[in-house]
């Protein structure tokens, strides 16, 4: 069912999550942990999501929702397993609390169970008769299990690679529960069970790996960022299994700065056509590359120095157009990096698409003959956005 050998081949199916109560359940002191600047307005977030999902559907893309797939995979046998793994990943160790959580979650209908897992669980839902006024003492942190407000970023916890996938080991402890959902779907959903043998990284590894650092260059090569969120040993472990049990020939790892502005490789480098990449200007400073390959059944790694453009041209076997996100104007460069203007989507019948919340990158993309589809973003500074195709 999974077939991903390119970043820009026409998109046939996409996995999403519609924002829900988990967004409103953010508490102020946790905003930085979840990389939020403020608590979003849910109705606006849902309207924006629905507009984007409808745009995909109007381009003949099959839109799947992770919450629906989890619910479809629930049976009398699998429900207790999901609950047990959820409690473990939530870091609950006190036996009486574990039993209370099990009883509470087991009693929920399947749809409500999935929504609760995503939206979080309040202390007073598990300890309703406490002798202490919990609201008075813990009004800033009322959760016994935190919500998953980042679940809308579905590429972080799971990456489709070829005919298989990698389940992320998320770098933020507070977000590790997100990987539980795709892992459960691959293990128990009838449509995905055949993929279970092609899980190249199962999320239980000791080192972090996140999907935003993984770019599928072609049918032979992956490019992965060594970043604040993806550890080089995780890349080595992924490479070992991927190259041993699939047709992939090579995994290349590019060292990028360990700070928030460069949180993932796909925030500074995005493929938008067979021969074109949008980039943040600092990407040309990145030249430290490690190449993993199998030689006589043994994983080898070679270190080299090369520019990102020369690497891409060599692997893709064609001249590459490098398109600066902010053009020649110095102002939009930091602006576009802050808004992650290079997030991309591939839509049939065109080659690819990209979303920006700001006007200047859109104007420059049009000058590069990249077609823009209008997509109104209700709370963006300029009130508009676009998909480029």
What does this structure look like?
There is one protein chain. The chain is α+β, with helices and mostly antiparallel strands and 389 residues long. The chain has a domain at 338-389. The protein is 30% helix and 21% strand. It is built from 13 helices and 19 strands. It has helices at residues 21-24, 42-58, 66-73, 78-89, 95-106, 110-119, 123-126, 134-137, 180-188, 232-244, 308-316, 332-338, 359-367; strands at residues 13-16, 62-65, 121-122, 143-145, 158-161, 164-167, 199-202, 214-216, 221-226, 250-255, 269-273, 276-279, 288-295, 298-305, 321-324, 343-345, 353-356, 372-374, 386-388. The strands form 6 sheets. A 5-stranded mixed sheet has the order 8-9-10-13-14, with helices on one face. It has a 4-stranded antiparallel sheet with strand order 16-17-19-18, with helices on one face. It has a 3-stranded mixed sheet with strand order 5-6-7, covered by helices on one side. Strand 16 and strand 17 (353-356) form a beta hairpin. Helix 3 packs across helix 6, helix 3 packs across helix 9 and helix 4 (78-89) packs across helix 5. The chain is globular and about 65 Å long. The two termini are 25 Å apart. Residues 333-342 and 378-389 have low confidence and may be disordered.
């Amino acid at each position: 069912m999974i077939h991903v050998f390119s970043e820009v081949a026409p998109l046939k199916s996409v996995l999403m999550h519609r924002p829900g109560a988990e967004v409103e359940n953010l508490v102020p002191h946790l905003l930085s942990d979840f990389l939020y600047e403020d608590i979003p307005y849910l109705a606006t977030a849902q309207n924006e999501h629905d507009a984007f999902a409808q745009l995909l559907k109007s381009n003949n893309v099959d839109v799947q929702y992770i919450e629906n797939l989890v619910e479809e995979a629930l049976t009398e046998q699998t429900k207790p397993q999901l609950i047990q793994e959820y409690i473990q990943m939530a870091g609950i160790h006190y036996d009486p609390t574990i039993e209370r959580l099990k009883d509470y979650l087991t009693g929920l209908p399947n749809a409500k169970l999935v929504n609760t897992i995503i939206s979080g669980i309040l202390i007073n839902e598990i300890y309703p008769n406490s002798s202490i006024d919990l609201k008075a003492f813990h009004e800033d942190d009322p959760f016994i299990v935190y919500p998953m407000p980042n679940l809308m970023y579905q590429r972080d916890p799971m990456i489709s690679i070829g005919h298989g996938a990698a389940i992320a080991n998320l770098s933020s402890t507070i977000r590790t529960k997100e990987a539980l959902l795709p892992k459960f779907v691959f293990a128990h959903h009838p449509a995905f069970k055949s993929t279970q043998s092609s899980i190249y990284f199962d999320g239980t590894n000791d080192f972090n790996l996140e999907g935003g650092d993984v770019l599928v260059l072609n049918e032979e090569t992956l490019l992965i960022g060594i970043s604040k969120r993806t550890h080089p040993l995780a890349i080595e472990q992924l490479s070992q299994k991927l190259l041993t049990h699939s047709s992939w020939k090579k995994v290349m790892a590019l060292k990028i700065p360990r700070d928030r502005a460069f949180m993932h490789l796909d925030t500074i480098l995005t493929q938008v056509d067979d021969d074109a990449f949008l980039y943040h200007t600092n990407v040309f400073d990145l030249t430290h590359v490690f190449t993993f390959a199998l030689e006589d059944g043994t994983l080898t790694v070679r270190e080299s120095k090369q520019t990102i453009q020369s690497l891409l041209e060599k692997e893709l076997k064609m001249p590459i157009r490098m398109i600066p996100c902010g053009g020649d104007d110095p102002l939009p460069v930091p602006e576009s990096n802050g808004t992650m203007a290079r997030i991309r989507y591939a839509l049939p019948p065109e080659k690819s698409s990209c979303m920006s919340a700001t006007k200047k990158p859109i104007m420059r993309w049009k000058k590069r003959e990249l077609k823009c589809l209008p997509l109104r973003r209700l709370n963006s500074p300029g009130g508009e956005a676009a998909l480029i195709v």
